[in-house]
Amino acid sequence: MTPPASIAIAEAGPAPTRERPPASVYGPFAWVRANLFNGIFSTIVTLVLGVAIAWALYGFLKWGVANAIWSVPTTATGALDPTACRAAHGTGACWAAINDKWRFMLFGRFPYDQQWRAGICIALFIGLFYVSSDRRFWRKELAYIWAATLAVIFTLMWGGVFGLSYVPQDEWGGLPITLILATFGLALAFPLSVLVALGRRSTALPAVKTLCIVYVELIRGVPLIALLFMANVMFPLFMPVGLNPDKLLRAQVAIILFAAAYLAEVVRGGLQALPKGQAEAADALGLTYWQKTLKITLPQALRLVIPPLVNTFIGFFKDTSLVLTIGILDLLTASKTAMADPVWQGVSTEIYIVVAMVYVAFCYTMSSYSRSIERKLDRARNR
Question: Domain containing 248: what range?
């Protein structure tokens, strides 16, 4: 007679517990051993680099924290007294200069009592980047979000409405200028680059292909500084009489044209990397050229070139600092101008460190986001 199932399970005893693998095979200690101390040469390199990093970190903490000057007293006239910073020059950082000049570094010549408007614009830009990076918002409503946010940003920057005082563009500066140039430059250059890449590969329109080739080779053969100078001098000549665009718009046009030429080559490389079978299968299904491009070839090409695309984005985000050559006060230029204050003469390392941290924060965010997209696409492809 067969025993009931409950009796059979009871007689079999409890289920065996799953033991963890030993620490020498799995876990942080195993990773350290496999990657940092895997052999004599690896161990020597790890120890040498560890000592060098520890020595550099100790020196920075001693200079930037232990011996640093965080604030300075004021004189009887209310001016700052930088004697302590000058006495600590070479042995301790003078963060008091950052405490005094951070508003000018961030906002430039924007009116002091209205700088809250520029601060809100920076927050709106960061929020817009965050929303755009979330795939849940990748719908047509995202275009409306962009339009509304940018309208609010320019309303706050310009003013003249809703009781806000008018601020001319000559008084804009700092981080808002950097974000405006980078955001509009890359947002408008990317679709232009796609059109140029498609035009350069066109076989049915030889005139368009020739025009795209001339545009890419001409722009890539000219430094960005030269293009900025040309845009600053020659762009108004193509405008109707009485219409004189400001320097910010001229620089924006130059950055868009320059970035589009480089991005077009990246996109073209992705299109050439696709096997011909993709396009042939789309032609066999009877898809039109734009259906084939927008639904089959272009999405796959862009997925292949995500790393070089983001690398180009990062490069142009930093290249916006070149607008100082035509007198635009971006983040780097505003920071360098802050050094010209006689009170803080000789204080430059601290200011450059702060500016570098701002650039690293934005660039590292773009790099991290591109890696997350690559991982998601790889998981979807390997299923």
Answer: 179-382
